[in-house]
Design brief:
74 residues; mainly alpha; 3 helices; elongated
């Protein structure tokens, strides 16, 4: 635990003593790379609940009737 803590503290100390911070990447170059340049099909957005139908709870049935229905279907 102690060597791991010392290694982390040393990395933070050396990073704080750096003379110039690292430059951020060029945004325009990233946008050019992300631009679509090919025969791609367009994806249409579909809401996740588009085919959802609300179900209302029903009254509990007789357990004997439910068991008999299950036995007849089997």
């Amino acid at each position: 635990m102690k060597p791991l803590f010392l290694a982390g503290a040393a990395a933070l100390l050396l990073g704080a003593c750096a003379s110039t911070p690292a430059a951020l990447p060029e945004i325009a170059a990233l946008e050019r790379t992300a631009a679509q340049s090919g025969p791609y099909r367009k994806l249409n957005y579909q809401p996740p609940f588009s085919g959802f139908e609300a179900q209302e709870p029903s009254d509990p049935g007789s357990w004997r009737g439910v068991n008999d229905e299950q036995q007849e279907n089997h």
